[in-house]
């Protein structure tokens, strides 16, 4: 039986809308993580500097995949700070907080992004959009993994 989703642009747009929120959250975390990579100081400098670089590089790849999936769904991907700011649930950081605060913020941000990714999974599955559901599931796993890693830095 054919999946009616393939020809249903309204359903495709709804999947893309959920991805747009995930894209905005991912991009804001990317910016924050890269800024923290540049500005981290203190006794944990070396491991955090390396970890933040690894994380923002992974986010850059994910951002591209999410945006390209939106385009495959026939929807324009947001690409400006104004669009991202309107869609994101992530709070911007303009300062250079202490390393434990950086870690706490990113832990919270990745938890928020995991929820956005789960919402994208749910929206896509409800419409029979298995490709978007698959992509968003991978993002849930990745954001939860990063949250766990960051949380490990805060344990005593």
Automatic annotation (TrEMBL):
Family matches, as Pfam families: Ferritin (PF00210)
Alphabetical list of Gene3D superfamilies matching this protein: 1.20.1260.10
GO molecular-function terms, A-Z: ferric iron binding; oxidoreductase activity, acting on metal ions
Top-level taxon in the UniProt lineage: Bacteria
The Ferritin/DPS domain, residue ranges: 18-155
InterPro entries: DPS_DNA-bd, DPS_DNA-bd_CS, Ferritin-like, Ferritin-like_SF, Ferritin_DPS_dom
Family per record: Belongs to the Dps family.
Protein name (Swiss-Prot/TrEMBL): DNA starvation/stationary phase protection protein
Phylogenetic lineage: Bacteria, Pseudomonadati, Pseudomonadota, Alphaproteobacteria, Hyphomicrobiales
């Amino acid at each position: 039986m054919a999946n009616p989703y393939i020809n249903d642009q309204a359903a495709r747009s709804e999947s893309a809308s959920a991805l747009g929120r995930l894209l905005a959250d991912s991009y804001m975390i990317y910016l924050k993580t890269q800024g923290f990579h540049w500005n981290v100081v203190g006794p944990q400098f070396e491991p955090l500097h390396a970890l933040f670089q690894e994380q923002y590089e992974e986010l850059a790849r994910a951002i591209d995949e999410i945006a390209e999936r939106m385009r495959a769904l026939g929807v324009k991907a947001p690409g400006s700070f104004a669009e991202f700011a309107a869609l994101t649930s992530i709070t911007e950081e303009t300062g250079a907080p202490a390393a434990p605060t950086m870690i706490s913020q990113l832990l919270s941000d990745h938890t928020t992004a995991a929820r956005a990714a789960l919402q994208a999974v749910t929206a896509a599955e409800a419409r029979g959009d298995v490709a978007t559901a698959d992509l968003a599931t991978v993002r849930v796993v990745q954001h939860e993994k990063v949250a766990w890693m960051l949380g490990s830095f805060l344990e005593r």
